[in-house]
Amino acid sequence: MGSDRSRAIGRLFCERTMDISFKFDPEVVIGADTLSLAGTICSRYGDRIMIAADHSLDMQTVQRLKDILNDARIEAIVFDGIEESSGTEMADNIVELCCAAHCTAIVGFGGRKTQIIARMAAIIASMRISSFELLDGRSILNKFLPFIAIPTTGLDAFSFTDYFLAADPRDRLVKLVKSPGKLYAAVIIDSTLYRSLSEDNSVIFEGFSSALEAYCSSKASFLSDSLLERALNFYAKLLIKGGEEIDVDTFAQAGFLASLGSAVSSPGVGAALSFAINARFPVSKQLCSAALLPSIAEQLVAARPEKMARAASFLGNTGQAATVADAANSAVDGIRRCMEAFNIQPNLKEYSLSLDKLTAAAEAARNLEFVPTSPWTVSEEAVFDILKNII
User: Fold this and answer.
1) Can you tell me the distance from the alpha carbon of 157 to that of 179, in angstroms, rounded to the nearest whole number?
2) Which CATH class is domain 2-193?
3) Across all residues in the chain, what is the average pLDDT?
4) What are the phi and psi torsion angles at 32 (to 5°)?
5) Helices 285-303 and 305-314 sit at what angle, rounded to 10 degrees?
6) DSSP output for 207-225
7) What is the rounded CA–CA span in Å between residue 173 and residue 112?
8) What distances in angstroms separate CA 225 from CA 20, 136, 354, one per listed residue?
9) pLDDT value of residue 290
């Protein structure tokens, strides 16, 4: 598999945007209108498939997927009740319907919340345990339903890791959930489905932030650096354009590379904090990530100046920097200028959050297993200072 992966990565590193067929485990297909391949891909996993769909998706879009599966002689059962406000216990409802219909695989069709809930459902369906048991750390077996992800708002830092984050509805604190290594059967990334770019450009800063943290992680390697430098370069091209129309194909490829690079390396504390704040308060994760980015970048400048200087070069901000430290610091300035160009607020003051309210969420984030891989000491005091900058 190593040689296949190397060839696939080599194909990704071309300058022009193109469709990608990434052959490894899981199969990943990226490009415009790749949803058309869903029937061929899903047919490998049985003739009765559960579609766990985002309620905000256009009905015609969901019907299109259903028709594609039907044309491949697959009976599609649709559960479209997942909303942004839905709790992770929604996975239990999906499992109940899935088991009653004797489905052999689950498709997660929608944004981040849908992907998390559908992923949980695929894990617990065969084990016949509840979502709360999974959140409480119940040991998972190598027994699950194949999961096919069709994201509509992009991938995140946890899409290819053997764990992911979910909000526990009982206390609204973020929890780390273990995920079987071969849970994903396939990922279909159709850039024409990406709706969020026209609605909220903060998703670009979220992607840049997750790629930057993984790039600077203490777990980074030659392979992750190769993937993440390319992701950062793609994101930088989008950021430099300012408020112009976003190239969704470039964004889709950047997100895939960042997600894969994060799995090879490790997500950072910024990703943890943004998930934790979103779990507890009605603030979108992408806005949290964008607001946290300048403060996280400042910490990374001190911890990984050479890599931050490299990130600054992608943004075109090194100029005539006399030293590596000067070049690294210019990355933070570049990030702030890009946020201003996109009219992204560098704080969350409009949400009236207080440090007292954020304490429990921040502590839950700081205690997540992957946070110690951050290249700087994530102390209570450091997190406290970061939070003060965004409220």
Assistant:
1) 14
2) alpha beta
3) 90
4) -75, 135
5) 130
6) HHHHHHHHHHSTT--HHHH
7) 17
8) 20, 34, 37
9) 96
Query: Is-cis flag, bond preceding 305, omega within 30?
Result: no
DSSP helix/strand/coil, 261: helix
For the chain, what are the domain ranges? Answer: 2-193, 197-390
Asked if 327 contacts 262 with a C-beta cutoff of 8 angstroms, the reply is no
> What six digits make up the tokens of 219?
């777990």
Angle 2-12/222-240 helices, nearest 10 degrees? 20
Do 324 and 304 form a contact (C-beta atoms < 8 A)? no
Instruction: State the DSSP string of 277-298.
Output: HHHHSS--HHHHHHHHHHHHHH
Q: 3-class SS at 352? A: coil
Residue type, 257: L
* Phi–psi pair at 58, nearest 5 degrees: -60, 135
Q: What does the alpha-carbon distance between residue 215 and residue 328 come to, in Å, rounded to a whole number?
A: 14
Which one-letter DSSP state was computed for residue 181? T
pLDDT band at 24; cut points 50, 70, 90: low
Each residue's pLDDT tens digit, 218-234? 999 999 999 999 999 99
- 242 Cβ neighbours under 8 A, 6+ residues apart: 338, 341, 342
Beta strands 105-110; 75-82: pairing state: unpaired
Q: Does domain 197-390 have CATH number 3.30.420.40?
A: no
Q: Which two tokens stand for residue 217?
A: 């992680």
pLDDT tens-digit readout, 155-178: 999 999 999 999 999 999 999 999
Residue whose tokens read 């050479």? 306
Nearest-10 Cα torsion for 254, 256, 258, 263:
-170
49: nearest Cα among 126, 115, 103, 120? 103
